[in-house]
Amino acid sequence: MARDLLGTLANKKVLIVGAGEMGEGVATAIAANPTTEITVVNRTAARSEELANRLGASTLPLESLDAALHQADVLVTCTGSGNFILDYEKALQVMGVRSGKKLFVVDIAVPRDVEANVGDLENIELRNLDDLRDWARKGVEQREGEATKVRVIISQELERYTIDSTARQAAPLIASLHEAAEEIRTAEIERYAKRLAALTDEQREAVEALTKGITAKMMHQPAVRLKEGAGTPQGERLADAVRDLFHLH
């Protein structure tokens, strides 16, 4: 929300009033922006100092809040004290010193820390828990839209994996088929070794290439059919037929 209003949190000054659980959560989130200047304001100095030291922030006593507001870009309040820490009159005085500089105020305290009509002042944007809930709901809706896309991707990848995995089931049989064909080819080459003895090296290479090409072409279509049929009843029948025809195990 702050980025939407200010464009960026880089080099911005953020005041966080309240160092309880909610204040710590907000401070930790904002501290992810390394160039954002965070100041923690709290009634109990020890608590704010511990949090500030952990996040690389600075601290101020609650009495110094008014002066700090003259320079701040963002104010986040979460004290739950029951009293307004920023009412209309105080906000009017603060804005009179800021020379038109905008102030983004987020009041997440229960009960509220900031008087509701503060948001009516010029150059002040006031948001509360209701606004944050709406903002969070929009974020959830956006994530749900992205989740739908992710489900489609997962479904497509799962289908691809299933196809590939099923096809790999036929790989051992196809390898055995190619080995059987190669054994037949090499046996025939050896049987005609005497007749081929007079061939030059170039001619012998040509014979090797020719016979390998023939066996590869003959094995191609059976291999394709075995892959396509893997995991199906028809594929099992084809596999059994190939094993029987070529005496494969």
Quick summary:
This protein is an alpha/beta fold and 249 residues long. Helix content is 60%, strand content 12%. The chain has two domains: 2-129, NAD(P)-binding Rossmann-like Domain (Rossmann fold); 169-246, no CATH class.
Set down the secondary structure blueprint.
Layout: H1 2-6, E1 13-17, H2 21-30, E2 37-42, H3 45-55, E3 58-61, H4 65-69, E4 74-77, H5 88-97, E5 103-107, E6 124-128, H6 129-168, H7 171-191, H8 193-196, H9 201-229, H10 233-246
Parallel strand pairs: 1-2, 1-4, 2-3, 4-5, 5-6
Helix pairs in contact: 7-9, 9-10
Write a structural description.
The structure is a single chain. The protein is α/β, with parallel strands linked by helices and 249 residues long. It folds into two domains: 2-129, NAD(P)-binding Rossmann-like Domain (Rossmann fold, 3-Layer(aba) Sandwich); 169-246, no CATH class. It has ten helices and six strands. It has helices at residues 2-6, 21-30, 45-55, 65-69, 88-97, 129-168, 171-191, 193-196, 201-229, 233-246, and strands at 13-17, 37-42, 58-61, 74-77, 103-107, 124-128. A six-stranded parallel beta sheet has the order 3-2-1-4-5-6. Strand 1, helix 2 and strand 2 form a beta-alpha-beta unit. The radius of gyration is 38 Å and the shape is rod-shaped. The chain starts with a helix and ends with a helix. The mean pLDDT is 86.
